[in-house]
Amino acid sequence: MIRYVLRRLLQLIPVFFGTTFLIYVLVWAVPGDPFSGKCGQTACPQAYVDLMTEKFHLNDNLILQYLKYLGSLFTGDWGETFNGTSVGELIATSYPITLRLALVAVLIEAVIGLTAGVLTGLRGKGFLDNLVLVSTTFLISLPVFVTAIVLQLVLGTELGIIDTSVSDNPSFGELIVPGIALGSLSMAYVARLTRTSIAENRHADYIRTAIAKGQPNSRVVGVHLLRNSVIPVLTFLGTDLGALMGGAIVTEGVFNINGLGGLIFRGIQNRESATVVGVVVLLVLVYLLMSLIVDLLYAVLDPRIRYD
Amino acid sequence: MEGNMRRSRRLWGAAAVVTTLSLVLAACGGGSSSSGSSGEVDPNGTFTVYGTEPQNTLIPTNTNELGGSKAVDAMFAELVAFKGDNAQPYNQMAESITTTDSKVFDIKIKQGWKFHDGTEVKAKNFVDAWNYGAYSPNGQINSTFFENIQGYDDVHPADDNAKPTTDKMSGLVLKGDYEFQVTLKAPFSVFATKIGYTAFAPLPDVFFSDPKAFAQHPIGNGPMKFVSRTPNVDIKLTRNDDYKGQDKVKFKDLNIKIYASQETAYQDLLSNKLDFIETLPPSALAGSKYKTDLKDNLVIGHLLGISTIAVPYYVPGYDNLDLRKAISMAIDRAQITKTVMNDTYVPADGYVSQGIEGYRPAVCEFCKFDPTAAKAAFAKSGFKGKLTIASNADGGRKEPLVAACNSIKNVLGVECDFVPATDFGQWRSIVTGHKLTGMGRSDWSADYPSIEDFLNPIYRTGASSNDSVYSNPAVDQLLQQADSTPDKDAAIKIYQQAEDAIAKDLPSIPVWDEKGVAAKSKHTKTVTLDFRRRADYSSVEVTK
Questions:
Q1: I need a surface site. Which of A1, B215, B311, B374 has the fewest CB within 10 A?
Q2: Contact A165 B234 (CB under 8 A)
């Protein structure tokens, strides 16, 4: 087990270098001058462009630029935006907020999605099954920005139940509606996935054995059936948390949440490459760690899985 | 998928925790902000405005865009200021500005004004700040604003590779604690108005010891002082009670709230969480929805700017006066501003924005919609092929230009396409690199309210925003003559002659002129939109 974890952690190193290099190159190699739109209808003074070019090492070749970036990254310096704000500070303030939002979204996905999936999986065809089928199809077909804007307009502007935007440092409560918007798509997937998995395993041999042994129904479902059916769902949820960290761009924009998604979005808009690279590096790390945790959780759910 | 027979309660335990947690979370959700207002003006109220993240450091010589200037302009007071409602210049920190030849200006400043750190504002604070702004190694984004001053070329050589020989402009001479003299390279009568621009603000002594730290906590001499800034969240300012200028504010705290999306800001405004937004999002403009949404809370100003379509001389086939006339007369400006732009713009009829001193109606005789004359001119031009209009497509730029293209197509029976660029940056690099293959959007907004600012930067040979690459020696000569005419009214007359000459050549086609449609919350009793699309803070009154 420990060897497995160590091996996985070691694997992170080449992945880290590979992804950061690719991102760095992609972001900085975008054709065009990052300063061409900075001075409105007039061209920027050459002195300003020169100063910025020197500050961001834009005259060096890309490999050298990347090495310089890595060098400062390892000393804890994430770089600076064009307006002189430290990227490290930006990430430090927005990271907890996105984490909170992603947690809320995953909780909503897990609780509502799993419940709907288990209920429909157990009961099979019927009114409830059709209801879940229709509503999940509906959710899957809606893009996140539509869900988010509809929730904002109806609950916020029209009914006044929620605020149309969240505060600077939103509480979990404020993030429930944005979390629903963010998690709605995955919630539908979780429900579908659980339903299929449960329906499949319901007729498995070990379930028949458990029933034959005279186990109470709650135990058959809760322990034998659910525990085995939840493995694919867990894989999905785990990677989804990683995806949500970055996929929150739209939701964070609509509800004006100052998180990582918004940071990337603004970074791309203003060509603040230092911000984009920084945040994406962080997301890569989170994603890698999440998949490691999910892999480790398999063993907890299914002891037959061995890592060495 | 198979399972195992191990008995465990772990999963149920986890499920129970999750359920409980989610119930707790649900219980603390929600909350509403709307509260009634008594209608009484609150001198200690807070005014919250829509903001965007400043693109540069918060230093006057390095701030040139709306996001940063919302904070910087409130913190600094220049020698000259402009009235919020009609953009008339008046002496703010200047006691007097005198000149006999429009080349040497003698400037006396008012005594007793203080920076927010308690030090007195003296003449040297202006001189030092201007020298800092102009000095090329400092790389200030507004450095070209100082180019009229004698000695600018020594601190900021035109050749990019040359090193400056000094860091002080010879044209700036201190005459005492409260007086200094500015000598220009050549006579420039509008200089006394130009120094009202943000870049000409004074900087306190503490700035020069550590500009970087200063940018994190700017200290100015303006009506509001810096409190705090959280990147991507907000910039907070508060009233400077010692302020001596005319444009004092009548509320206490200014909160510039930064939004990722204009749509969200607009929703916040409708639910009175935000007090002011200077532009309305496309969803509110569509079908003039904003008129019913806002009613009394609509704020209409008049921006000093103009939208034109540049017809570059370097594009083959376009250097044809009849073609330019035909295109111009084929655009139904009245219809497009009404239906496509939902009354947020008015048709343009000259090269100067309406509301600028020296503006005359109908200077551009070919800017009237006239299908018959347009067809005749087009036949005369002998143009063959396809017309294009290029622009960045975001921010509602595309729709009016597509409509203009359709109008041209319908009248002239020639193909006309809109060519999108991905973003403003890419768009500007196409234009400044002279890579246009057809017409291109060319909008201008004034930095300071003067007819000069609508002509010199755009139509002089080699000017910084001469998108059409227009060159007419007669125009250049008139502009130079106007620049060196000390008498303001006489100068305006010569600028008008230059405008007439430009209107005959049609280097770009004036299309529309933005009104400036803003919105306020119901907690805001009064607010004016100034000519640079910002709330005029001194006009703001918030209610309890």
A1: A1
A2: no
